[in-house]
Amino acid sequence: MLKCAERPSPIRLPEILHLIFQFLVEMTPQEKSSQREIYSCMLVCKQWYLVAQKTLWREFRFMEPTRLEKFIDLLKRTETIECLGIENKKRQSISTNKFVRTIAHRGQSEVPEEEESIMAPSVMQRRIRERASGVKKIVLHKLKQMEDDHILPLTSWFHNLQIIEFYICEKLTDKVVQSIAMNCPQLQQLLMPGCAKVTDSGVSQIALHCPRMRHLDLRACSNVSDESLLLVAKHCPDLWHLNVGRVSSATKVTGRSIIEIAKNTNLNTLGLAGCAMTDDAVIEIAKHARSGLHRISLNSCSALTSASIRALMQLCPNLAVLEIKQCLLVSDMATLYRFSTRRVLVELCPELQNRLLTYKVELATMSRSNNVATTLLAGNCGSDEPDEQSSTDITTIS
């Protein structure tokens, strides 16, 4: 039986440590970096160092161009061992080391092989390659001046990526997206909001080579159309979240592709703000998505009427969020009111908010009138002649 002193402390178990460090990373707001806290953990002891290093190499987030440039430069130098700057020093010391070892082991039949230093360039290169295989997520946040050539090394090094987010990287083009498709077959989430230069060519390659795709965010990618989304519908059956909201080029995304996506995937969240949606399309989407649909954005889909809202009410019982700002043809306030009784968050523009408020006031007034009428009717049915006390009260009121 182990004594208490011999039992390992929970915080020294690598599995527990990794979960703690990963929790720290996930709970840190995106606008802040958790790497500083994890780096401090590396200084505690050898065990913490090894686990923290693994955690740091799981996710990279770059919010400043200079940091990304330094990191890319490191990757480029690592590709050639001699460029690490320490190979020459090692070569210069080889002859000296051999001489010292020969003297130390004189008289022995064999001279043991020299153990490769952990700082040897080949070892460093191998270690970085191993760490690169564990990277699951890369985020580039508002790096508006970074071009394809700056980003391409990332796609060639990290082949096990599951999440890539390029948030408002305005100069990024299909060249990078196609490289991602060819090098990251396990990709599950691709977020490219504000990457306006991405077209159907890049998204089509993602559909063809990343069948595990679950989350596709193409907001403000106005060059993406039905053409590539039809391929997404065909090749990405696990798709769970799709957002193709836009402020221009509305006619490029229609019900033709979105209905197919609703048919062939497991949609939970659907963003169609500013797209050319019709009532017929929304009704078909509701028929196929049904209870799986939890959130839908139809903001600025100006052709929609109350028919779309009624279809969502009847066919999508698990809907939790409905956005219909600037859908001014919607006039069925009774259905919108029923959504609120189902605890659905309905986001409206000021015009629709006023209409719904007016309906609620009219409904409340009507309810009070009905209550008064019911009370009077019940009183009249109770007795034909008022009792003495009631007569006194009525006289007093008069």
What brief labels describe this structure?
single chain; 398 residues; alpha/beta; 16 helices; 10 strands; elongated
Structural class: alpha/beta
- Percent of residues in helices: 40-55%
Strand order of the largest sheet: 1-2-3-4-5-6-7-8-9-10
The biggest sheet amounts to: 10 strands, parallel
Shape: elongated
- Count of individual helical segments: 16
Distance between the termini: 93 Å
Mean pLDDT: 83
Note down, in words, how this protein is organized.
The chain is α/β, with parallel strands linked by helices and 398 residues long. The chain contains 16 helices and ten strands. A ten-stranded parallel sheet has the order 1-2-3-4-5-6-7-8-9-10. α7 links the parallel β2 (137-141) and β3. The protein starts with 13 loop residues before the first helix and ends with a helix.
Set down the secondary structure blueprint.
Elements: H1 14-27, H2 35-41, H3 46-56, E1 59-62, H4 65-78, H5 87-104, H6 121-132, E2 137-141, H7 148-157, E3 163-167, H8 174-183, E4 189-191, H9 200-209, E5 215-217, H10 226-235, E6 241-243, H11 255-264, E7 269-271, H12 279-289, E8 295-297, H13 306-315, E9 321-323, H14 333-341, E10 345-347, H15 350-382, H16 388-397
Parallel strand pairs: 1-2, 2-3, 3-4, 4-5, 5-6, 6-7, 7-8, 8-9, 9-10
